[in-house]
Design a protein that fits this description.
Largest sheet: 2 strands, antiparallel
Strand order of the largest sheet: 1-2
CATH architecture of the largest domain: Alpha Horseshoe
CATH class of the largest domain: Mainly Alpha
Strand content: under 5%
Radius of gyration: 22 Å
Order of helices and strands: EHHHHHHHHHHHHEHHHHH
CATH topology of the largest domain: Serine Threonine Protein Phosphatase 5, Tetratricopeptide repeat
Structural class: mainly alpha
Shape: globular
Helix content: over 70%
Number of strands: 2
Length: 316
């Protein structure tokens, strides 16, 4: 789950919707001075104040920033398992878990409908049962359930306080654009997500993990030729920042990609800027970590790449 900072949340939504403090004051009965203080300080807000402001900015959606229903809390583990199985390409298990989640969810809630449309379509795409174009349409429609103006915000580069679920959908939309060969659109969304998260409206482990994975996905777009240096710089910074996130899939992906980029950079430039033994050590770390968390894809990538580049088995 993510922790949302009320003041920054309110300010970002207000600015995105081009609402002035004066007009918001008229709608809520809260003074302009009080709204300004709420937006620009980190002091705690009374629930009654939040209850007056968010419904005016996000009618029908405001509760999702504050609380989860009992049913929603009960399926957090299942949702996490779905995400892990998707990353590991265990599609049958992901589908089975999604069936369990669907039976538990209240299908009338906006975010529940959004979640089911998102996951059903994305799993079908990853499983080869749906085209990238069809999945893209579904995911854009899913995001519009809670944020109808999201495309305008992306095009205008307007920071918006998306929910963790919405950020996940945005990230998958970027992936689908990439699959369709629309690299500019894909890169625009990855950078837009970075901008929104960097505004600081939310915190928590899940937000940090999503930020790591999003930056990892962005670097994959530039992991070639002269883009390698920039990719390495981003990956090194992300690796340092994500070491306290336990052994997550994002950490594993960064560890493997960093070693791969450093080795490819050495080959491209014909120099050993990055130590060969350290690269081998990072690939071994990625290999054994992949075994530990049962991530077959990266385990095989690390093993095959090591053999190809260094001429012997990764375990030797």
């Amino acid at each position: 789950m993510a922790l949302y900072k009320a003041g920054k949340l309110i300010k970002q939504i207000r600015l995105a919707k081009k609402e002035t403090r004066e007009s918001l004051s008229e709608k809520t009965g809260i003074s302009v001075r009080t709204i300004e203080r709420i937006e620009n300080t980190s002091q705690r807000m009374k629930s009654v104040t939040i209850g007056k402001i968010l419904p005016k900015l996000l009618p029908g959606r405001e509760r999702y920033f504050a609380v989860c229903s009992t049913a929603e809390i009960g399926i957090i583990d299942e949702k996490d398992k779905i995400q892990i199985n998707l990353a590991k390409k265990n599609f049958d298990e992901a589908v089975a878990l999604l069936d369990v989640v669907e039976k538990k969810l209240d299908n009338e809630g906006l975010t529940n409908k959004q979640y089911l449309l998102w996951k059903k379509s994305y799993i079908a795409f990853r499983n080869g049962e749906k085209s990238a174009q069809s999945a893209l349409v579904d995911l854009e429609n899913a995001l519009k359930i809670t944020t109808p103006d999201y495309k305008k915000y992306v095009e205008d580069e307007t920071s918006y306080p998306y929910l963790l679920q919405e950020l996940g959908i945005l990230m998958n939309i970027a992936e689908l654009y990439k699959s369709l060969g629309k690299y500019q659109e894909s890169e625009q969304i990855y950078l837009y997500i970075i901008k929104c998260i960097s505004s600081g409206y939310a915190s928590g482990k899940n937000i940090r993990q999503l930020n790591v994975i999003n930056r990892l996905n962005y670097t994959k777009r530039i992991q070639n030729g002269e883009g390698l240096a920039m990719a390495i710089d981003i990956l090194e910074k992300q690796y340092l920042s994500c070491r306290n996130l336990d052994y997550s899939l994002g950490t594993l992906g960064i560890l493997y990609d960093l070693a791969w980029c450093q080795n490819e950079y050495n080959k491209l430039k014909g120099i050993e800027k990055y130590d060969r033994e350290k690269i081998k050590s990072q690939l071994r770390d990625a290999y054994y970590l992949a075994i530990a968390i049962n991530y077959e894809s990266i385990k095989k990538h690390a093993q095959d790449y090591f053999l190809k580049e260094f001429g012997h088995d990764i375990t030797e």
